[in-house]
Design a protein that fits this description.
OB fold (Dihydrolipoamide Acetyltransferase, E2P); 5 strands; about 45% helix
Length: about 130
């Protein structure tokens, strides 16, 4: 999905964008910019001549956004269920507290997987500026 934002800071090919500042952003009600003054980094791979205050359009690939949302939101819940039933197999049904503790360890593992994936990918998943408005 394409979003708009205003350039706040430029550091080489990395640009800090403030989203949700113009009337077009307010009208679209995009989930990425729903929160006012949302600030994040994008790549300037096409070497646009940018200055602070310029409005730019950038691309957030939908597939990548969905996958990363899955990693952060759904995977820990799935791992809770898996680890809970592993704990149930190890400790038995009578030991509910230990089973829940195993489930919580599953949630922690889900967040660790998301963290390691994010560190492994680094800046490769950053949004890219597509044009200057």
């Amino acid at each position: 999905m394409y979003e708009c934002g205003v350039v706040q800071k430029i550091s080489g090919k990395t640009v800090t964008i403030k989203c949700g500042t113009n009337s077009a952003c307010a009208a679209c009600k995009s989930p990425i910019c729903r929160k006012k003054d949302r600030i994040f980094e994008v790549k300037n791979l096409n070497n646009f001549e940018l200055a602070e205050g310029d409005e730019v359009e950038f691309l957030l690939p939908s597939g990548r956004t969905v996958f990363e949302s899955f990693l952060v939101l759904i995977l820990p819940l799935i791992l809770f269920i898996v680890f809970y039933y592993i704990g149930k197999g190890i400790f038995g049904a009578e030991s509910e507290g230990k089973n829940i503790l195993c489930g919580v360890l599953g949630i922690a593992n889900g967040f660790l997987i998301a963290l390691f994936y994010s560190r492994l990918r680094g800046n490769k998943d950053m949004p890219v500026i597509t044009r200057k408005c």
